[in-house]
């Protein structure tokens, strides 16, 4: 395995093409682009790559190359842009990416200081944001027995930085009025609904999709969303479709999250509800996420760059580690590569052991360890399992 540092010059990586599938001689190299991001990203992302390397090394013949791409504030300082074109070009050549948290709120207001993740999500059409929430019996949490997956549409809705073909979905015609436009399309509602129903089929859960809306108020947009979801549900007679108004769902999520399985949301509702769900099981450090499209996927934790704790070595790496576990799983399913799925399972089992043992946990989980010790404990378990 290699972990290349890519400078701001265009680097050509030849596409590896598998020869005959199943042939023992066939060889495929999977390429994962790594963008560390800002603040705690610089601490948790390199450690997560080490964990992936440890798990991958246990799979004979599995070839994964990690390639680093500049992004964020360090990229601005070095290359004059928070998302250089060379990074976007290089990502084209990758099968999947890892993106650390981005501290864009602190960037100066300059055209070179863009928020990279909406641009990457849109450029690669990473339309499905998958955010699981799971409780752990050994950790103090508001709820036990929680195991749900929020499936959030990623590229339209209220998010003004990605919901228009050109320009911005938020504008201010005069001093006294400002507007946000919410875009809901049949096409994007349909494809995210399919992801939710497929996930409900694959999960070992309740085979239930709960769709979130406020169609009594947003009659046209949420009406179109729900009509589309109900149509898609006809293709999944083995999965139950339930639906809730977003406000009552927010209450049920706090009171009885155990009753949900897959939760299907438009963009902004999903963003808010997934942070709320994280709060039920230990906070944002426990909230992984994957942004998936038809051809590529990007691991990205739900949390931000946590500037309040950056540089202190205390960030919880769980969310980033489990996001990368989801990426390996997705790549394995996409490319029919069992060893990637096996590496993902090893990471999950290693993390579960570290949590159950409780000796190497970060302070947000009630432990006395730092990012480095918790990550090293996961590596040690990966080597052992
Ligand atoms: P964004 O809007 O970019 O998602 P945010 O405003 O939601 O970011 P975060 O950066 O996610 O804010 O931080 C919110 C709180 O959660 C902070 O107190 C931060 O320290 C804490 N936090 C976030 N991630 C972690 C982590 N991995 N480990 C420990 N604490 C974290």
For the biggest β-sheet, the strand order reads 1-3-2-4-13-12-5-6-11-9-10
Counting helices, strands and paired strands, the structural category is alpha/beta
Order of helices and strands: EEHEHHEHEEEEHEHEHEHEEHHH
Number of helices: 11
Silhouette: globular
Strand content: 15-25%
Bound molecules: adenosine-5'-triphosphate
Alpha-carbon distance between the two ends = 21 Å
The unreliable regions are 1-25
Percent of residues in helices = 25-40%
- Main sheet? 11 strands, mixed
What Rg is obtained from the alpha carbons, in whole angstroms? Answer: 21 Å
Structure description:
Helix 1 runs parallel beside helix 11 (371-384) and helix 5 packs across helix 6 (221-233). The chain is globular and about 55 Å long. The protein is 38% helix and 17% strand. The chain has helices at 41-57, 72-79, 85-92, 116-123, 186-202, 221-233, 246-255, 267-280, 318-335, 338-357, 371-384, and strands at 3-5, 29-35, 63-68, 96-99, 128-134, 147-153, 170-174, 177-180, 208-213, 240-245, 262-265, 290-292, 297-299. By secondary structure, the protein is an alpha/beta fold. The model is unreliable at 1-25 (pLDDT under 50). It is built from 11 helices and 13 strands. Bound molecules: adenosine-5'-triphosphate. Adenosine-5'-triphosphate (ATP) binds next to loops.
